[in-house]
Design goal:
The structure holds two protein chains of two kinds. Chain A is mainly α. Helices cover 64% and strands 6% of the residues of chain A. In chain A, helix 2 crosses helix 5. In chain B, strands 5-4-3-6-2-1-7-8 form an eight-stranded mixed sheet, with helices on one face. The chains are: A mainly alpha, B alpha+beta.
């Protein structure tokens, strides 16, 4: 399966191109066009909405993105290209970091955040804080780690980066040299719940 | 012994001389005729911005006024700031007590005192230089102030001036709303919103000129573009007739950089140092290349931002010494931790940093590396070496290895790595659970393989433990871009004291599958068994644990060398380019110019002996210069500890030469 992306003055198909055929191409074209119309149209209205803070705006964008993911059944393996495509269609400049590391992509972060109620997220912290949590190496490798940190953070009601960094650091150290994909949810959370020093 | 004639009292100070010294400090750093206007705007706006109640409602106005006797005044007014808050005092003792308590909110007490700033690293200012600048700005060395306080709605006013004893005198009058009007006869309205006003009597002529000819506005736009851009901050300059609001310089506008004639790169949220306990991060480094337009001189370079203001601009052509770099400019914003670290290295005038110490040194190295990356991207640097240079590569590598081995013994393995602490531990024994690459066999030891040659690639997972282990076992080969060339994956069961082999008995190198480049063989076990076993160096043998190995090889080329220094030949007709050095990842690259007549004559020796001697001699000097830079940036320098505290530049070369001499002595 593939995703369409811009290159120079044209486009190319990224992803599993060994199996690139007319059906896959058509699907990639549709995803691109649909996202462009859907996201940029709604986004511009969102941005204009006064009184919304940054977190709310990204949360709403995340909801839109998740609808696209659901509609086209975007695969996990396609997502790193999909986030880049969203950068393109949104008209925002694509940060270099986001090109290299999809964990740094704000659309990816927004998509994860949109799975949570905005009221819960707002209790936890700002957009910048959630972005830091979700772009850390371990949370980006396994969404369940992000989920654990978010659960923990919301419980502890952190208000700033300083409070959440020990959690990120713990997760990073505890899961160092561990491939969490082979762990069940319980096994993973048992390891993470070994955390002792957080109040 | 004290007796009845003993004199005790406070030392008498000539404050005018101190003010002259402060003025000289600014003058020497801002070497242009309007230095005072530049310094005044920076300090004034920074103080005001630090005291803001909200970004939205803040405004700062600097006006030139004239009274009916043709006397000039500079009137500085801010709106939406806290005002001169804190305890109001009427006696000298009370003021002393407030200052000794060190309360951060006692703005009034700090404002009228010297060297008692309430600022910390989170604010822009320090040591209250702004007040001194007000005095310096006035020909008669006096200024008035009044303030409406946000905390209690009270009004406070006063005057600071030079008294007859050449000392700074202070007058503070509480609850006198018409003080400024009464003192100066100017038609000034009463303050209605919280904020502070400064009235400088008889400003110096060059200051008046800068207010009327636009120079002051230019300085503001060059310094405060970040807060104008992000928060639409209102800063107004008035020459008495026309009000002009500082605008965002188009060069810093995102829309402008989208124009066709520009290439831009943005690095966000990256860490600058590998060995620091602190998490120093750069929030944003933006680099832009203007293909056609010349960049105005006053915004050339990379603007180093702190607290919303430009502290200094690092010249692009000094960061990367190639032609065309003056067309590269940009800016750098730091996160709070890095701002705090850099604040400690900032000069009192807010005009520059001391780039020798960490984190500034690491930051500068990172800026250099990223600027170079960008220069390559926009084709200001050619990456391919000529064939002739490739012939000398062997000489370069052997000399670099010799120097690197020597530096390694001193503990220096790379820049930003610091001096490695060597602990007396014995080598960890072969792990009982491991992957062995002893059957990865290349045709020669250099790890280079050419087209038509073959290699054996077998990897062995070994379990010497007394327990059974289940695992996923993967072996694969990737190129330098991360593309997988070959891949094998199995779920395996390892009995106690057994092994499992997988791989390829023979792989013949053909260009289609293995184009010229660097490759890596990787092999990994992901354990699927839980045990209670802890192994030194690996940790707990638990489900999910990864045990991996890798080995590099190159096809039709030599493997890239590693170490503190590397050599690189360049071709440049610039007479001033002989030898230069630049940081590159964790190394220092020493560039030697093959067009320089002194170097080109050495290259005529086909054996490379002349080049070897040359690179050895100059390489070690430059390497030691970098070692010293690394060493001095550490909290406790080891090699150059005796010149740590009082760095006298004349000590540097002799000290380096002493160390070089020892190296050269042993190298023959």
């Amino acid at each position: 399966m593939t995703i369409k992306l811009k290159k120079d003055n044209g486009y190319y198909y990224a992803g599993n191109i060994e199996f690139l055929n007319s059906i896959n191409k058509r699907r990639a074209d549709e995803i691109y066009k649909y996202s462009e119309d859907y996201l940029s149209g709604k986004k511009s209205r969102l941005v204009k909405r006064k009184g919304h803070n940054v977190l709310k705006n990204w949360h709403m964008r995340g909801q839109l993105i998740n609808k696209i993911i659901k509609k086209f059944k975007i695969l996990e393996s396609e997502k790193k290209y999909f986030w880049l495509m969203l950068n393109e269609v949104s008209g925002d400049p694509v940060p270099e970091r986001a090109k290299k590391f999809n964990s740094q992509n704000d659309f990816r972060t927004a998509s994860i955040l949109a799975k949570y109620a905005i009221s819960r997220l707002e209790k936890g912290g700002s957009w910048g804080l959630w972005r830091e949590i979700l772009s850390s190496s371990k949370t980006s490798e396994d969404e369940r780690v992000a989920e654990w940190i978010m659960g923990k953070a919301l419980k502890e009601k952190p208000v700033n980066h300083k409070e959440v960094r020990p959690l990120l650091k713990f997760a990073r150290n505890r899961l160092k040299k561990l491939d969490t994909s082979v762990l069940s949810r319980k096994e993973l959370f048992d390891k993470l719940n070994e955390i002792k020093f957080i109040k | 012994m004290l007796n009845q004639n003993t004199y005790t009292g406070r030392q008498i100070k000539n404050d005018v001389r101190d003010l002259d010294a402060i003025a000289d400090g600014y003058k020497s750093k801002l070497s242009h005729e309007y230095w005072l206007a530049d310094a005044l705007q920076k300090d004034t706006i920074q103080n005001s911005w630090d005291a803001k109640l909200s970004k939205k409602d803040w405004c700062n106005t600097i006006k030139l006024l004239e009274d009916n006797k043709n006397s000039h005044y500079i009137f500085i007014e801010d709106v939406g700031t806290v005002g001169l808050t804190g305890e109001i005092f009427s006696k000298h003792e009370e003021l002393t007590q407030i200052l000794s308590n060190g309360g951060k909110k006692d703005h009034l007490a700090h404002f009228v005192s010297s060297n008692f700033s309430a600022k910390d690293s989170e604010s822009g200012g320090r040591r209250g230089r702004g007040k001194s600048l007000f005095l310096i700005s006035s020909q008669g060395m006096q200024f008035y102030f009044d303030s409406l306080r946000s905390t209690d709605g009270r009004h406070v006013a006063g005057r600071i001036f030079i008294g007859t004893d050449n000392g700074v005198q202070v007058e503070v009058v509480p609850d006198s709303e018409d003080y400024l009007k009464e003192q100066t006869g100017l038609n000034l309205t009463k303050l209605s919103t919280s904020g502070t006003r400064i009235l400088i009597k008889d400003p110096k002529p060059e200051l008046v000129a800068a207010m009327t000819n636009g120079a002051m506005l230019n300085f503001i736009e060059q310094t405060w573009w970040e807060i104008i851009k992000k928060y639409n901050a209102k800063i107004i300059i008035s020459d008495g007739n026309i009000n002009r609001q500082a605008k965002l310089l188009v060069w810093y506008s995102d829309d402008f950089l989208k124009n066709e004639g520009f290439e831009k790169i943005e690095y966000t949220n990256f860490n600058i140092s590998s060995d620091s306990k602190e998490d120093f991060r750069v929030k944003r480094l933006v680099l832009a290349y203007s293909k056609n337009q010349e960049i105005p001189e006053n915004i050339r370079g990379i603007a180093i931002q702190r607290g919303g203001m430009t502290i200094e601009r690092r010249a692009s052509e000094q960061l990367v010494k190639v032609e065309g770099m003056t067309k590269v400019y940009g800016w750098l914003e730091m996160d709070a931790v890095l701002e705090k670290g850099m604040y400690g290295l900032e000069d009192v005038e807010h005009l520059g940093f001391s780039w020798i110490k960490k984190p500034a040194k690491d930051l500068l190295d990172e800026i250099r590396i990223k600027t170079r990356e960008f220069a390559k991207k926009v084709n200001l640097i050619e990456t391919e070496l000529s064939k002739q240079h490739k012939l000398h590569k062997k000489v370069e590598d052997s000399v670099a290895k010799k120097i690197n081995d020597f530096l390694k013994r001193l503990g220096f393995t790379g820049i930003g790595v610091g001096k490695k602490k060597r602990t007396l531990t014995t080598r960890i024994k072969t792990q009982p659970l491991r992957i062995s690459l002893s059957d990865f066999i290349l045709p020669n030891e250099s790890r280079r393989i050419d087209f038509g040659e073959s290699m054996k690639v077998m990897t062995r997972a070994i379990n010497d433990l007394d327990v059974e282990i289940d695992a996923r076992y993967k072996t694969w080969m990737v190129n330098s871009e991360g593309k997988i060339i070959k891949n094998l994956e199995n779920e395996i069961h390892l009995n106690p004291r057994s092994s499992y082999v997988q791989g390829w008995e023979e792989i013949k190198i053909v260009e289609k599958e293995f184009p010229v480049g660097d490759y890596s063989l990787r092999s990994k076990l992901v354990l699927l068994s839980e045990t209670d076993i802890e192994l030194p160096g690996i940790g707990r043998i638990e489900k999910g644990k990864e045990i991996s190995v890798s080995s590099m090889f190159s096809v039709e080329k030599d493997l890239p060398s590693h170490g503190f220094i590397k050599f690189e030949a360049i071709e440049n007709s610039d007479r001033s380019r002989y030898l230069t050095s630049r940081p590159d990842a964790h190394s220092i690259v020493i560039e030697y110019n093959t067009k320089h007549p002194f170097v080109s004559i050495l290259l005529q020796d086909k054996q490379g002996e002349e080049l070897r001697k040359f690179l050895l001699q100059v390489g070690i000097i430059i390497a030691f210069n970098q070692v010293m830079r690394e060493d001095l940036s550490l909290e406790k320098p080891k090699v150059f500890s005796d010149i740590e505290d009082d760095l006298d530049l004349s000590d540097v070369l002799p000290k380096i030469m002493e160390e070089v001499s020892k190296f050269m002595w042993d190298s023959q």
